[in-house]
Structures are given as C-alpha cells and as structure tokens.
Amino acid sequence: MTTLQQRIIRTLGTACTLGALALLPGQALAAGDIGESNRGTYMDAWQAGRNTFVDACSTCHGAFGYGDGISAKALEIAPSDLTQLTRRNGGEFPWVYVYEVIDGRKPVASHGPAGMPAWGRIWTQSLPYDNARDADIYVRGRIFELLLYLDSAQEPEPEQVEEPSQD
C-alpha cells in the first residue's frame, strides 16, 4: 500500500469520525469532551490539521494565524486573524462558515474572484483519483482536520475585571 493510499484511508476514517464530532456543540470539542475512544483519532486529525495549516495557510495568515504571514503585505486585503473567529462569531466557532470559506463556496476577497475556490478545488485537482466522489471525500476530511486545528487556535475572551467601587 502506497503512502498516498494510507493517507486516503486514514483521512476517510477521520472524516467519518469528525463528521460526527462536528455535530457536537463547539464547547464540547473545545473542552476536549470527545470520549476516550476518539481521543487518538482526534489528536491525529488535529496534528494533520496543524500540518495543513503550516503548509497551506501560514504564508498569508502567519505561523499562529494572526494574519501576519510573510505574504500578507503583498495582498490587497489583509488576511484575517484566524485566532479571533470565535470572538467575532459571538463566542461560537463558526464551523460551517469556515468550512465553506476553505472549500471555496464562500468567496473571500483576498482569495481571488468569487468563482475561484480557495483550497477545495486546488486539493481536489492535485489528487490522482479516477472519480470525483473519492477526491471530494478526501478533501472534506482534510478540511475537517484543518477546522479542528483552527478551533483549538482560538484566543480566549479577555476576562472582565470589575473596577473597585470608590464608595
């Protein structure tokens, strides 16, 4: 079995598990409440997501997702600070929205014209598949892995400190 075939099989298994996990409330995933039987799969998927982030996203979004990558200054529109997605979405990680942006169904000005998918099409076209269904499943798994990493990279809300009363 080739390395590519091994990764495909792992990603398909991960995609199925993560598809179920993504249905959980964001707080459960953020708190690591995924159950012991899924912990290894979750950590493998998280690491794969981190690797994908470094390979595909960090050039624009920076090593830690702050939008300060080495290519950021060359872009017409600055990349988003990916550590603030949850804060900007009222305290919930926007799973579906971020998935669609990465896949290319939600146009993002810095990623090119509205009809240009960012990564879904690029990853799909780079795979040696005979049918689109297998490529689509692989790409969905890869995006879910990236989502797990991005969810874990969210900065916590600043704690509210009450000023002492001067009574």
Automatic annotation (TrEMBL):
GO-annotated molecular function: electron transfer activity; heme binding; metal ion binding
Gene3D superfamilies reported for this sequence: Cytochrome c-like domain
Keyword Kinase: no
Entry superkingdom: Bacteria
Alphabetical keyword list: Heme, Iron, Metal-binding, Signal
Record-annotated Cytochrome c domain positions: 44-143
Signal peptide feature range: 1-30
Protein name per its UniProtKB record: Cytochrome c domain-containing protein
Organism: Mangrovimicrobium sediminis
Lineage, uppermost ranks: Bacteria, Pseudomonadati, Pseudomonadota, Gammaproteobacteria, Cellvibrionales
